[in-house]
Sequence to fold (425 residues):
Amino acid sequence: MKNNHTLIIGGGIVGATLALKLAQDNKPVTLIDARPGRSEADWQQVLGQRDARVYALSLASIGLLKEVGTWQKIAASERKADYSQMQVWQLNGMGELLFGDSNDSTNNSEKNTSPKMLGSMVEPAVIEYALWQRLSAHDVSQYLTVIDGQKVVDMDWIGSQQGYRVTLENGSVIDARLVVGADGRGSFVRKQAGIELDTLDYKQTAICCAIQTDKPHQATARQAMLPTGTLALLPLADITDEDKANPQHWQSIVWTLPRNQALALIAEHPRYIADKLAAASNYELGAIQKIESIASFPLAAQQAKSYVADNLVLIGDAAHGVHPLAGQGLNLGMLDVKALSEQLTHDYARSGNKLWGANQTLRSYERLRRPHNSLMMHSFSALNWLFAGSLAQLRPIQQIRNEGMYRVSKIKPLMRLFAKQASGV
Fold:
């Protein structure tokens, strides 16, 4: 196979979005996904089920999906739940943060310039299906090759001018000037490049499920800061006729607990879990009528010590992983895609269409993204420490936390700044 400009290893949302972005810019790219390809019938079977997991897509991520022609398909499917407010509160404490237009006391002319939608909750499979449709579209097929159902088993660096020689499990060999690792937290690409990780184990486990509540969510993403960890109640799209007749009652739950407590709870009967969950939320949305798709996953943060090596760059979870308390993991990866694609095409044009993925270009991307991602990771860790665990329950910490939330909630310009940061624009 010819020496492509770019080989992206990892066909998840971040990798596929980058592939589409480059192909739309007429840059040859090959995308390798270890997962077997799905037929249209397979996709419809997957989409026929409600997924308890959602991604809280920021306006910046939505904008990028629009650029690659994917958001239009998601919107048409009606499998999204837009939210216009974010509510953050702590039980047994003072102060509540409410982000959104209804919290803004500025004049009407200023309010009309601010976005009413803060973001949208979308199930992973809905995004992946829209990307799959675009990956096979005629307008990108000339520049984009997709290989699915194949794992990369070997990577050899053959010099800065040639890049990497990559071997797949079926024996195929691909030479690529630039390799992009988009293959998740356990990244094979990162390990092959010898890039080490900084890690932080929170000793917490998140319980994820879908619930139907008595009260509607009213397009509000909610997060309770509990002594045991955070509890997020995120709007889910209504997918059945019954849902649509009584809309806005389904939520996606991410409930963070100490690991032993979470593992003991998830072994209980679903009705017991639902009742405990409703009580933990202080019945913010009333009782829980139904609970589905209960699962759990351990929580840890990680950051690659470098995002780049010769002819190689990491994006998304291969480069960084953060605590889910602010729902920003995928959004950080999408910002990686935007920064890397823009840096690659800018420097390529500036070199007279000669240098693609040069070390200087990759280092520029790293300088743009790694400090920002580090700040986000440590900020989320600090918030988790401030609200959860034994130290967080000491009276001086509680007083600082209460006073801080109360005062921040009263400063409207600061609240608008936080909302803007959350939207990513």
In short: The chain has two domains: 4-53+123-196+305-381, 80-120+202-300+388-423. Residues 103-115, 397-401, 405-411 have pLDDT under 50 and may be disordered.
